[in-house]
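Methods — Computational structure assignment.
A single polypeptide chain was analysed. Its primary sequence is given first, followed by the predicted tertiary structure written as structure tokens.
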Amino acid sequence: MNVRRQRISGTVVAAVTALGLGTLSACSGASAAGNTEKFDVVASFYPMAFLAQQIGGDHVNVTSLTEPGQEPHDLEISAKQTAQLQESDAVLYLKDLQPSVDDAVAQSEVRTKIDAASLTTLEKHGNEVGGHAAEHDDHEDEESSGLDPHIWLDPVRYAQVAEGVGKAFEKADPDHAADYRTNTAALVKKLDALDTEFEDGLAHTKSKVFLTTHAAFGYVAERYGLTEEAINGLDPESEPSAARVKELEKMAKADGVTTVFYETLVSDKTAKTIAADAGLKTDVLDPIEGITDKSRGSNYFSVQRANLKALQTALGAK
């Protein structure tokens, strides 16, 4: 499916984004989540924090619940973080990605709750995503239940979320509404350009199939006509069965797969084992759940472009 971005209409549904309390390159650097002279926003993890900072600019104080280098799925909110959440003006989160954040937001009295998942469409993805999947449907994917939360990796969906967040900021902090509108429009323009880069960069490749350890790139596969085959499902820590590994090795040979992609925040042991057995290379494809010293870039856009380059190399872009 390759649905183009449409403008968000209607009421912005209240939602929360949990962002780590550690310092992030996209954040304001303030240590307190609330009670500052700015519009205080708590975000659940990096992609939400980045949006808040890009849209809010100098008017916001952004803090993240998930620290750099911490796997977002594993986050357990502390009592201190819960208290700081209560003191904030807004919370931006992605529902169903981090259960402890969902619970904290539900119990919080924060006036403005922004759920990114409510601002775009989510789909059901499992180990195998893309147009090629129908050719390999002789097995039932046991890990395909639930909606895929990795919407930020699709520039089109991320732009939809940005528009919704911008509207929520305008409503919650009307004194700076004009700046929020300007910043949102600028961010959406950059995301539209990134979408074009991916579309053009992946239009002509020798292969359309890529192999990952974590099924985080289903939206990317659908958007740009590729197929993601994942060793694990949506849970990056799950272990593949021996049958799944054998199936992947067979698929890799049949489809001309050259590379097993792993990510920065999860062990690369499984990827390297399968790559060695199948005679494949390994490389990084970053789900951009956090920026660390290991990241191939300092922010969302630079890491996305590094991902595009890695995909072009692995798929044999012409």
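Note: The longest strand covers residues 39-43.
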